[in-house]
Amino acid sequence: MKELPDLEQLQGRPVVFYDGTCGFCQGSVQVVLKYNKRQDLYFAALQSGVLEALVPGAQLPDPMPDSILFYEKGKVYTESEAALRIAGYLDFPLSILAVFRIIPVSFRNFVYRLVARNRYRIAGRTESCMLPSPEQRARFVGGF
């Protein structure tokens, strides 16, 4: 069993949970790392067990999505809401993607699910999570 980080240090910090075996998700994490110059986002693979340890079971979505989740201020966001909230933490010009939250959630989630269903076809599947650079490692929790 993987050793989990001190979960108290994550309280109040935004955490991006991603599919660690998805090439598309790992590429997206690389983009977020590059454009989050404030370095205020943390990352954990969905497979790491950090989500279940950090968030009470009653707050976890059912069914559990397998692509991306975003934990912010004690709440868990899924699908397009997760992606657009993450965009709000990015530097310009990617930060302007957050304005798409004005689009009705049903349409946003339709587009999100279309991409999510095809993500392995788009970017493939990997057997393991990416290895972050030494300077990025402090932002990954629960192993990588």
From TrEMBL:
Q: Where does the signal sequence lie? A: none
Q: Name one GO molecular function term.
A: protein-disulfide reductase activity
The record's listing under Pfam families reads:
DCC1-like
Which PANTHER family does the annotation name?
DUF393 DOMAIN-CONTAINING PROTEIN, THIOL-DISULFIDE OXIDOREDUCTASE DCC
Descriptive protein name: DUF393 domain-containing protein
Name the source organism: Pontibacter flavimaris
